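Sample 3 of the quickstart, ligand flavin mononucleotide:
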Amino acid sequence: MTVSIEDLRQRAQRRLPRTVFDYIEGFSDDGYTVTANRQSFDRYLFRSRALVDVSAIDHSTTLLGEPLATPIVLAPTGLAGLLAPRGEELAAKAAASRGTVFTLSTMSIGTIEEVAAAASTPLWFQLYIWKDRSVTQSLLDRAKAAGYRALCLTVDVPVMGNREQDRRNGFTVPPRIHFANVLDVLRHLGWVLRMSSSPRATFGNFVGHPALTRTDAVGVARFTNHQFDTSVTWKDVEWLRSHWPGPLVIKGITNPEDARRAVSLGVEALIVSNHGGRQLDFLPAAIDLLPEVVDAVEGRAEVILDGGIRRGSDIAKAIAMGARACMVGRPFLYGLAADGQAGVELALDLLTSELDRTLALLGRPRLSDLDRTALRVDAPASLEPRTSQRHGATPTSMRPVGGTHDT
Ligand SMILES: Cc1cc2nc3c(=O)[nH]c(=O)nc-3n(C[C@H](O)[C@H](O)[C@H](O)COP(=O)(O)O)c2cc1C
Ligand SMILES: CC(C)CC(=O)C(=O)O
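Result:
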């Protein structure tokens, strides 16, 4: 029975070859930050109010002026189409069916146009800036022509984080079968069969680009480190501001100074994110970074939080601290791998119903009732840097499945 995101995670793990599952779970270096993202939620406890009428719970909100039926947005995740054929299209349809936004990664398997054609939801396009600026320009033109509503510039990948497990696994795009993984792939023939109906197993937006040939498998870090521009600065944000007609969102803000600068350039929303612990290790937990960014922004832009959200209570905490909405990455990928579109819908439903229950038990029936008085800060959780790199010892598995906190 699937009653939690952890259950979905385990189903995804059973369905995917290990190298693909490890790519989703991947984190950089010692995994301090990926662990902190989860454990730091445990430092914030609730102050509940009794005898409040909670007969009408309202978890709807607005984001960039659009109504959202739930404050949970699907984060950009490269290669989601390796988890299920047409994975990005399925996830976008799931977001539409639940009244929320799907963000398409530059590095998706499905193309900008395919995903736009599949979905009837406001879509956001996430941009990585390429050294070859004609590629960047063409991505922007395509996203604009396909009707993507907002542009989400990710700023925390000047170079790829050190994902040691992907390196050990020899993870490539398309995934390669070799001596070390052949038995594991044979054990997951269902995935092989399902994926045989996929239109491709490489970065869809760049098919035909000389850097990607049909036959060559490329390492993700090697490929991106060759193509992404390491010289991106605030000047590029100014350039994007004047070339992108819609709302501009910056993803990967961890410093209040940067938040203030982004706001001064007219950026409409900021995503407080450490990239799910996949980039700079030893950044603090995303939830711990949130209050100072919210305070720096002073309401001049909307603030979104991502990183480590696995429970509706995590979302309530982020919103109480001033986030307008939350993004989830791995939780919806687990759903996608477990059961395609229905799995992504289940991930959204589980989190939303947990959020509803939290609001009722807290005595704050509407999202707008949440503020910092709903929280108290407990003693810091003890965060142990990970030494084991095996995917079975993931941060989520460090929490009991039942969700009782162990700090
Ligand atoms: C498999 C995977 C691929 C990702 N690819 C991208 C990407 O292409 N662009 C991006 O901005 N963030 C990417 N991210 C980061 C997510 O957008 C998000 O910040 C992170 O997953 C949030 O943490 P969570 O997984 O704990 O929810 C990726 C994350 C994962 C797990
Ligand atoms: C394909 C990658 C560039 C996607 C990414 O940003 C990530 O794995 O964190």
